[in-house]
Amino acid sequence: MIGILSIPPVFFQWLLMGSFAKSPHAADLMVYDAREGDLRTVRAYLEHGVPLTATDHDGSTAAFAAAADGSLPMIEMLAGKGANLNATNLYGDSPLEAASERGNASVVSFLKDHGAVQIHGTPEQRDAAIELIVRRDIERQKNGR
């Protein structure tokens, strides 16, 4: 019994990755793992068919999340696989905007060197994003998800 307890949780995640990648929450999970800098898991999602263009609840891609949280190894890996470094989230912000706003200098430098453009969303985009996210959350609550 103690042997089972000593197995790292990531083992079970890897064991179930095929199921995770097919779930309706795969994009949210992959973007979360990109934000956390979990290269192995993000690679596994991509290998199991989750597209680089997948977005989470606020329209952020894995590249956006990696840039926002300053994970240079993650953004390098995603760029190497062809991630769009200018994809904006629902708020209208680009990965370069997120990295700049959070002071992630090494990521800012990498993004600029790879042709990224700093795009800051308009107040109208921000209002529309908030409205959409709240509406989705209300709908999820009604449906019990």
Description:
- The chain is mainly alpha-helical and 145 residues long.
- The protein has a single domain, classed as Serine Threonine Protein Phosphatase 5, Tetratricopeptide repeat (Alpha Horseshoe).
- Helix content is 62%, strand content 0%.
- Helix 4 runs antiparallel to helix 5.
- 31% of the residues are buried.
- The model has no long low-confidence stretch (mean pLDDT 90).
Features:
mainly alpha, Serine Threonine Protein Phosphatase 5, Tetratricopeptide repeat, single chain, 0% strand, flat, 145 residues
* Average pLDDT, all residues: 90
User: Termini distance?
Assistant: 34 Å
Number of domains: 1
Q: Topology as H/E string?
A: HHHHHHHHHH
CATH architecture: Alpha Horseshoe
Shape: flat
Helical residue percent? Answer: 55-70%
Number of strands: 0
The biggest beta sheet is recorded as:
none
CATH superfamily: Ankyrin repeat-containing domain
Can you tell me the CATH topology?
Serine Threonine Protein Phosphatase 5, Tetratricopeptide repeat
Please render the helix and strand layout as text.
Layout: H1 2-5, H2 9-15, H3 17-22, H4 26-36, H5 39-47, H6 62-68, H7 72-80, H8 95-101, H9 105-113, H10 123-143
Give a quick summary of the entry.
This protein has about 140 residues and is mostly helical.
